[in-house]
């Protein structure tokens, strides 16, 4: 579902009524319904550990991943369900992973924070904030080294930009980029908060793109709730990175409607009013309004998409419920290559 | 005396020390406005203000490194690691700097700082969030490493840590935060480092443990008692420096020993303890020292696998029966 | 009709308490309205309605603690009837074919891995796989033994070769040595009471000469660990039996023939310290005290309770000891220190009518007397055939320590005490 298949240079944003946009809407609805379901399942005790949902940020995943080629690579942090789904991972197998079953994408041994689906280009799924940015930069270098024109996307939150390993990664990416050896698009999922601490309170320089530019990496800020804008920037930068092998960065200004994780119920760091205000800029509503106004998408069409999504999620839940937990022998596998 | 939870004992210790000495401050992620992921620091920002209760960015190496700098000029920082799993990020700052500056300055500086946080398995937190660090930190000269198992020891040992002159790795267990116990009210109640205590007396076998596994060992001992096997259970409390004298005395009498630790067997604390007991009690041992440990794999997510990977009182009981040759 | 359940609000939350209800059965509610206040171990908070509707039956009362996933109330969507669904409907099986009830491992009850959870994890998928490496096979034919067992064996002079190990891979462990007559040294081990009057014997070590080593080695190679040889002597016990009869006519006295033999054997040992000894790797130990093991037969086998310092006890005292010990054997109350530590052993099958037999030496002793039945026999005295009470004794000796002549000398001394029983009285 929904990775760009053609190399057409026309900005897709111009082709507003291309069928691809319907696909993107359906994908975002699926992600939304899936994430809502995981929240419910967590409350029912079916999903354990930590759960970080992408509700409100769908455009950032769908908008950029839809600009990729099938053989490109994506890295993400622990708020990773949306990226896996946007890349085409089977929702049933993702849900099974969250339920800790043997049929999960990581065989039940990763859980929510460690989704992996190499077949679809998803390279995780990491629990240490900002710890994965170095991995992404190294993969980018390797792809160029191999003489391919594949590229890497690396997603991280605003909070991840303060950790040491992040800066080491940025610096090396900028350095390798001079020789065109780092074809990577960094994406700052700037939702305004590092868990319970606002950007104001955690970042000395609140202009996050500027911080990236300090490493000689160009960075563009975009309205992360408007998937047209996001995809427009993505198209251009993905193409640019693929051609030049130099890194680039997209700062997507977005907002998460749910708490940081399933346990962040009280959310003492922001008011309910603030959340309400941001809900008025729901990326799914924005897209469907635009498609409705410009392409004749009807409410019935959208209801159909919603029903399809609900059905797909129900199937995923059933699959997850019925799947068996892993065998005891699985405990000992994949520690090292056998 | 009052009955307190382990969590409150830690909080009281920090607040009493902050009241006592204006040089004491705390720093960590989301300890102020968010009031701490385990709510240990609830209300502290309001009472002491943002200069002494410092919300840091997500930057463990930054937290540990700046704490060393503060300590060298006379402050007494307490760094809360959200979990000790994240402290690995700060390994260079802790192991190459905090642990060594007094030594390679020829004793010209004190480094009075505490790094505290929970460790060990929780519930389905997966491989990166379920580890234990006593052997990791216990390996380095220049550090104190402690792991209290009761509320009283948590409070007394944290005070000792704050009042000291050296870096202390203070290992808590999230599973113990809700545990209640008697804690002395005296604000100067401290528990010294390097002193193990006998948690339960017995003559048939010696069990040595610490932190959450100490509680598991006591549960196992109760069950063994019903079968007529009386275990002596020793709570180490401090891992560096290790106090094994009570264990040596006990094994002289029982001739057999089981060491229980939560994490992996290779290079774990139990290896150090077993080797020491073998050295001291060699002629008196009727069986090799038995180590009961977690399975040597990264912690899996699926609950059934997680349960299998973590030591349970069943394994402690099996270990005791093995050294008694009582397997039948 | 939908359920309002106790939600999981924290990673480790397992239950919550209903503090108070804002709504009651029959109330209409709108999505987002608070329904009730709950208390968890960390926070109190309001649960809001997830949809518009009417509250149906309220099942959890104020103050009640409800586990995560438990039902608090039901809510009917607008237009639905108010009848609640069947209460406590069994949840569908998580795994096809599995039992109907919710498993503890699904509830993620506790970090403490309750016994129930562990048992269920095993029942679901089998026990923890044993990945311990097996004990490696010891080469060179050397026996495995614990340091404690070796220490005990060395102190007792017991050879490990003679012991069957009951530990893994045949490891010899402390209880194997205990079974062979050794005692584990305890820090406050009790010493046997000193009898007043200095014993005439002294413990001393006789270092092995080259000749003795050679004899021992050759004999051991041919006959097993302890090279036995046997000497039989025939004794006139007429006077002995007569004395016994006289003594037993005194009330409260009941002495057996064997009690006399024990005293006689003990007194004779005073003159032959080389027979009151034990073999060791580097030296033979001659013991400073005389403790006679008395073989007692039990349904499970032979055990030898020990009469301590038998040379210093009267026959009556010996009789008493033996009776007490035999009782304890019968009632299984014999303590280790009561059957360990003998320096010499006597086995008597006279009661079974056995004329003579050979006994096996009881390590770490170096000799044992096998006593046959005492009874009238025709003998030649002064060229006349007369009837006398006779008793045969066969002595088994450890040839590494006791030569034929040494054994014969002992039996000769023994004769004096048995045939002139008045000597036993002094």
Strand composition percent of chain C? 15-25%
Head-to-tail CA distance between termini of chain C: 106 Å
Q: Taking Cα atoms only, what radius of gyration of chain B do you get, to the nearest Å?
A: 20 Å
Low-confidence stretches of chain C: 84-115, 185-199
How much strand of chain B? Answer: 15-25%
| H and E string of chain B | EHEHEHEHHEHEHEEEEHEEHEHEHH
Count of alpha/pi helices of chain C: 10
Q: Mind describing the biggest β-sheet of chain B? A: 7 strands, mixed
Largest interface: A-B, 40 and 34 residues
Order of helices and strands of chain C: EEEEEEEEHHHHEHEHHEEEEEEHHEEEEH
The first-level CATH class name of the largest domain in chain B: Alpha Beta
Portion of residues within helices of chain C: 25-40%
Biggest β-sheet of chain C, characterized? Answer: 7 strands, mixed
What quaternary form is this?
heterotrimer
The best one-word shape of chain C is elongated
Cα distance spanning the termini of chain B:
47 Å
Strand order of the largest sheet of chain B: 3-2-4-5-7-6-12
- Low-pLDDT parts of chain B are none
Structural features:
heterotrimer; A: 338 residues; alpha/beta; Rossmann fold; 5-stranded parallel β-sheet; two-stranded antiparallel sheet; 12 helices; 44% helix; disordered N terminus; B: 328 residues; 2 domains; 7-stranded mixed β-sheet; 5-stranded mixed β-sheet; 20% strand; globular
């Amino acid at each position: 579902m929904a990775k760009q298949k053609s190399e057409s240079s026309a900005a897709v944003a111009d082709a507003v009524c291309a069928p691809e946009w319907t696909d993107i809407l359906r994908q975002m609805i699926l992600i939304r319904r899936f994430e809502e379901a995981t929240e419910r399942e967590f409350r029912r005790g079916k999903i354990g550990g930590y759960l970080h949902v992408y509700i409100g940020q769908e455009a950032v995943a769908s908008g950029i991943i839809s600009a990729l080629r099938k053989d490109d690579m994506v890295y993400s942090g622990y708020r990773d369900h949306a990226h896996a789904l946007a890349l085409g991972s089977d929702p049933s197998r993702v849900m099974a992973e969250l339920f800790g079953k043997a049929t999960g994408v990581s065989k039940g041994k990763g859980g929510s924070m460690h989704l992996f689906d190499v077949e679809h280009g998803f390279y995780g799924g990491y629990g240490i904030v900002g710890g994965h940015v170095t991995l992404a930069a190294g993969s980018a270098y390797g792809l160029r080294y191999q003489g391919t024109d594949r590229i890497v996307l690396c997603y991280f939150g605003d909070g991840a930009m303060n950790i040491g390993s992040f800066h080491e990664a940025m610096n090396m990416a900028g350095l390798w980029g001079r020789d065109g050896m780092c074809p990577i698009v960094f994406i700052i999922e700037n939702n305004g908060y590092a868990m319970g601490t606002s950007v104001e309170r955690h970042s000395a320089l609140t202009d996050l793109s500027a911080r990236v530019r300090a490493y000689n990496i160009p960075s563009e800020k975009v309205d992360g709730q408007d998937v047209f804008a996001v995809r427009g920037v993505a198209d251009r930068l993905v193409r640019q990175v693929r051609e030049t092998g130099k890194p680039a960065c997209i700062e997507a200004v977005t907002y998460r409607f749910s708490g940081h994780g399933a346990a962040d119920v009280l959310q003492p760091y922001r008011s309910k009013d603030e959340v309400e205000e941001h809900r008025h800029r729901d990326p799914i509503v924005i897209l469907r309004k635009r498609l409705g106004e410009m392409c004749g998408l009807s409410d019935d069409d959208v209801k159909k998409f919603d029903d399809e999504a609900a059905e797909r999620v129900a199937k995923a839940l059933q699959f997850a419920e019925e799947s068996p937990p892993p065998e005891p022998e699985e405990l000992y596998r994949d520690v090292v290559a056998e | 005396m009052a009955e307190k939870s382990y969590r409150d004992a830690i909080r009281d210790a920090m607040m009493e020390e902050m009241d006592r000495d204006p040089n004491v401050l705390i720093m960590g992620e989301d300890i102020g406005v968010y009031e701490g992921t385990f709510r240990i620091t609830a209300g502290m920002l309001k009472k002491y203000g943002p200069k002494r209760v410092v919300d840091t960015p997500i930057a463990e190496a930054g937290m540990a490194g700046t704490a060393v700098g503060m300590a060298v000029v006379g402050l007494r920082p307490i760094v809360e690691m959200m979990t000790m799993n994240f402290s690995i990020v700060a390994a260079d700052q802790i192991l190459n700097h905090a642990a060594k500056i007094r030594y390679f300055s020829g004793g010209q500086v004190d480094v009075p700082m505490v790094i505290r946080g929970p460790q060990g398995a929780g519930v389905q937190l997966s491989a990166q969030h379920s580890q234990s660090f006593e052997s990791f930190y216990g390996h380095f000269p220049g550090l104190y490493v402690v792991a209290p198992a009761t509320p009283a020891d948590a409070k007394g040992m944290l005070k000792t840590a704050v009042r000291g002159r050296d870096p202390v790795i203070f290992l808590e267990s999230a599973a113990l935060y809700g545990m209640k116990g008697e804690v002395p009210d005296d604000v100067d109640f401290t528990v010294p480092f390097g002193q193990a205590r006998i948690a339960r007396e017995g003559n048939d076998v010696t069990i040595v443990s610490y932190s959450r596994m100490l509680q598991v060992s006591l549960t196992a001992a109760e069950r063994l008692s019903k079968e007529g096997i009386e275990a002596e259970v020793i709570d180490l409390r401090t891992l560096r420096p290790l106090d094994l004298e009570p264990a040596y005395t006990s094994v002289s009498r029982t001739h057999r020993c089981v060491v229980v630790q939560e994490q992996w067997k290779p290079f774990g604390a139990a290896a150090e303890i077993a080797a020491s007991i073998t050295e001291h009690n060699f002629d008196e041992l009727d069986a090799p020292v038995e180590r009961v440990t977690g399975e040597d794999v990264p912690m899996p997510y699926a609950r059934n696998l997680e349960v299998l990977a973590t030591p349970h009182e069943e394994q402690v009981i099996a270990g005791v029966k093995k050294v008694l040759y009582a397997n039948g | 009709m939908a359920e309002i359940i106790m939600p999981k609000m924290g990673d480790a939350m397992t239950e919550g308490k209903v503090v108070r209800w804002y709504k009651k059965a029959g109330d209409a509610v709108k999505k987002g309205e608070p329904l009730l206040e709950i208390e968890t171990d960390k926070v109190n908070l309001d649960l809001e309605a997830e949809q518009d509707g009417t509250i149906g039956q309220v099942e959890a009362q104020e103050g009640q603690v409800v586990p995560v996933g438990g039902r608090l109330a039901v809510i009917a969507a607008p237009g639905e009837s108010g009848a609640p669904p069947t209460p406590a409907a069994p949840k569908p099986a998580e795994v096809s074919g599995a039992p109907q009830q919710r498993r503890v491992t699904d509830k993620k009850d506790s970090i403490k891995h309750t016994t129930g959870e562990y048992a269920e994890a095993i029942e679901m998928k089998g026990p923890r796989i044993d990945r311990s490496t097996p004990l490696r096979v010891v080469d060179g034919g050397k026996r495995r033994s614990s340091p404690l067992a070796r220490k005990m064996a060395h102190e007792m002079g017991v050879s490990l070769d003679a012991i069957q190990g009951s530990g893994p891979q045949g490891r010899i462990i402390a209880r194997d040595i205990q079974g062979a007559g050794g005692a584990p040294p305890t820090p406050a081990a009790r010493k046997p009471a000193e009898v007043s009057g200095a014993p005439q014997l002294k413990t001393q070590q006789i270092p092995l000469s080259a000749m003795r080593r050679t004899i021992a080695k050759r004999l051991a190679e041919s006959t097993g660990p302890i090279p036995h040889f046997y000497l039989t002597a025939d004794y006139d016990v007429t006077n002995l039996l007569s004395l016994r009869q006289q003594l037993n006519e005194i009330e409260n006295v009941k002495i057996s023939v064997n009690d006399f033999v024990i005293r006689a054997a003990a007194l004779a040992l005073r003159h032959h310290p080389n027979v009151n000894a034990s073999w060791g790797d580097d030296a033979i130990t001659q013991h400073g005290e005389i403790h006679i093991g008395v073989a007692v037969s039990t349904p499970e086998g032979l055990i030898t309770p020990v009469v301590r310092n038998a040379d210093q006890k009267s026959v009556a005292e010996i009789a008493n000891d033996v009776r007490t010990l035999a009782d304890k054997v019968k009632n299984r109350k014999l303590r280790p220190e009561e059957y360990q530590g003998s320096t010499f052993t006597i086995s008597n099958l006279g009661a079974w009518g056995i004329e003579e037999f050979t006994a096996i030496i009881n390590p770490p002793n170096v000799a044992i007397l096998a006593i046959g039945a005492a009874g009238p026999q025709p003998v030649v005295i002064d060229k006349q055939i007369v009837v006398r009470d006779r008793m045969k004794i066969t002595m088994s000796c450890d040839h590494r320590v006791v030569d034929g002549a040494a054994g014969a000398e002992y039996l000769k001394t023994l004769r004096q005490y048995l045939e002139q029983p008045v000597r036993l009285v002094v």
